[in-house]
Amino acid sequence: MPHTNKNNNLILIAVAIISVVVGVLVSQKLIETPVKIPENLSATLLDKAKPLQPFTLINHDNKPFNLNSLKGNWSFLFFGYTHCPDVCPLAMQVMRKVWQAAELKTTLPPTMQMIFVSVDPKRDTPAVLKAYTQYYNPAFIGVTGETEQIDNITKQIGILYGVDAPNKNGDYNVSHSGQIILIDPQANMRAVFSPPLNPKSITQDFIAIKKWVEDNI
Amino acid sequence: MSKIFLARKTFASIVCFIASINLAAAHGLAAITFSNITIPEAPPVASVMAAYMHIKNNTNAKKILNKISSPQFKRVEIHEMHMTNGMMSMKQIQALTIKAQQTMILKPGGIHVMLIKPLKPLKHNDQVTLTFKFASGESTIINTRVQKTD
């Protein structure tokens, strides 16, 4: 009887030792494996995913566009205005090239959306935004809202803009950040692409960031 | 025979050359030259378009471009993009000074000609006429076409 107890104790000790060893190995494996942060990115990758807080805007069909509208897709956001002659059309052309390039990648399911957020709601009505975005690609989405609603999302993302005083003709310019923002399918801000915007490097960076995020889930 | 022919040919060439210089000077063609003119197509609702180009001053005096007009647009202005407080801002330039023998490059993200309020929406291949007036009196008319972007 005492002999059996001794054996049982030995088994328990062995099990305990094996558990600890296995535990250490597994935890080491878990620490080591997490996919390396992609290197050589042109984009600025956020150290930690930044979850966006609820916001309310309207899309170019006058339908609500909110936090849920960002879920399920990788979103590229650019903030500008349709009366912009230079920076915004260039950014839209870049987004079109990224869209076309990503579409060609068989590894990439069509889970992207390209969003142009107008910070000039006075002139950029949903109808104007629709014609503007559809010109670049029928799948692109134009979005705007009341000033306070726009400010909610621009402040969260760190986008700056300012409306200049009108000139004698009543025209006015809008100063604005020139970055494209990348949001993941859980509505977390992930990366910032800064000018000069290069469609090739944005596409490459996006594929690397997407893979890194998916491998870490 | 062939010597006379060669001499005549040379003489004719010189005459033509001198004539062309005079013609160029008389029309002010050689003083300022325009190249690489691009007007990218914009969405049909766009109320502004941009024109980019190289403007070369071939003279030994500075040239001041102070007016541009176009029959296809309500107004034409010169604007410059610059970064202010982390934002891309645009400022109107009243006159563009091009130094002697220098080329001014108007390009995206820098200085551009802003074509304001097209009288009708312009698309790929539509003609645009631009008249450039300089303070020194020269005037140049350029005919170009709207180009499709990729």
Would you kindly provide a written description of the structure presented here, covering whatever features stand out?
The complex is a heterodimer of chains A (217) and B (150). Chain A has 217 residues and is an alpha+beta fold. Chain A has helices at 2-32, 87-104, 126-136, 147-157, 199-216, and strands at residues 44-51, 56-59, 64-66, 74-80, 112-118, 141-144, 161-163, 174-176, 180-183, 188-193. Chain A folds into two domains: 1-33; 44-216, Glutaredoxin (3-Layer(aba) Sandwich). Helices cover 41% and strands 23% of the residues of chain A. In chain A, strands 1-10-9-4-5-6-2-3 form an eight-stranded mixed β-sheet, sandwiched between helices. In chain A, strand 5 (112-118), helix 3 (126-136) and strand 6 form a beta-alpha-beta unit. The N and C termini of chain A lie far apart (51 Å). With 150 residues, chain B is an alpha+beta fold. Chain B has two domains: 1-30; 31-147, Immunoglobulin-like (Sandwich). Chain B contains one helix and ten strands. In chain B, strands 1, 2, 3, 4, 5, 6, 7, 8, 9 and 10 form a ten-stranded mixed β-sheet that branches. Chain B is globular and about 55 Å long. The relative contact order of chain B is 0.23. Classes of the chains: A alpha+beta (217), B alpha+beta (150).
